[in-house]
Amino acid sequence: MAAAGPAIRRAQLYVPGSSMRFLEKSRSFAALDSVAYDLEDSVTPSKKPEGRRNILEILNRERVPGIREQAVRINSVGSGFALDDLTEILKGKHLDCLVVPKVDAASDLHFVTDVLRQKLPERHAAGSSNPVKIVALVESARSVMDLSAICAASPYLSGLTFAAEDFALDLSLTRTPSLHEFMYARSAIVTAARAFNLPSTLDLVSTTFRGEEGVKQLREESENGKRFGFNGKQCIHPDQVATVQEVFSPSPQEAEWAVRIVIADAKADKQGRGAWTLDGKMIDVPVVGKAKAIVARAEVCGMDVKGLQERFNDEEPQ
After folding, report:
1. DSSP letters spanning the chain
2. Which residues form the HpcH/HpaI aldolase/citrate lyase domain (predicted)?
């Protein structure tokens, strides 16, 4: 079975499983980190069996080169649909990830993990390099309060996603352009993910994106999420993907800065210097760690890191 590309989710695009037309169209993307074929909100109860069949057909086709990861958002464990979703979807040859909504407690992920191990024992045996990953949606006050237990609930957990609309409903909040009302929840999510070494944190859906003003708002909201510590964002329309993936990639300036730091630090280390300067600014261990992380992400994003390394090979610590 062909494997997914390197794990990175700058954008995760939801595609309704009940629409074969949309499912087919999603396979034409030239560059998309993660597609999440949806069985939850976008599919009515009467259409869920059809949605499962449609998605299974897509998962059993050959991979297309433009999509790194094929995920499926199942229905919540408490909905009564989750087991039927999993029973069907786990037959898919090229399923990489499950997006689990309304994860209010660790027990929700315990259930999904048990089903994975029962249905796909070889992929989930000890030492397996290709398990089905899990991304958990944080949608309620209870979920935010139980993040530590949720993060430790499954060895297959690969990320957390903030579902702002359901969270706002749970707390009777009104969403504003500033997003200040979500500050605590968003900070809690990125902090928990980092503490438990989860690679993905996906920020809230942007509902405004059409036209010049919409694209501007999408970019501003994506940049806000990046500053908060998120490394990706949920998308609900194909037109959002390019902007979101651009924002959540290192900029050319960031990549250059990081490569210069890493090259100069290697030389400083040989000289026995724990702290040094570059462009008049102090460089120490935390700064070097950030630079190395940016270089690694730039490589996964397909940036010409090797070319930058050759260009700045003569960089010296000051």
Report:
1. -PPP-SS--SEEEEEETT-HHHHHHHTT-SSEEEEEEESSTTS-GGGHHHHHHHHHHHHTSPPPTTEEEEEEE---GGGS-HHHHHHHHTT-TT--EEEE----SHHHHHHHHHHHHHH-TTTTSTT-S-PPEEEEEE-SHHHHHTHHHHHTS-TTEEEEEE-HHHHHHHHT----TT-GGGHHHHHHHHHHHHHTT-SEEEEPPP---SHHHHHHHHHHHHHHHHHHT--EEEESSHHHHHHHHHHTSPPHHHHHHHHHHHHHHHHHHHTT-S-EEETTEEE-HHHHHHHHHHHHHHHHTT--HHHHHHHTTT----
2. 10-238
Q: How confident is the model at residue 210 (pLDDT cuts 50, 70, 90)?
A: confident
pLDDT at 208 over 90: no
304 among known catalytic residues: no
Q: Which residues are annotated as a binding site for Mg(2+)?
A: 139, 166
- Binding-site residues, in ranges, read 73, 139, 166
Q: Exactly one of 114, 239, 284, 304 is catalytic; name it.
A: 284
Confidence band, pLDDT 50/70/90 cuts, at residue 6: low
Residue 302 in this model has a pLDDT that exceeds 90: no
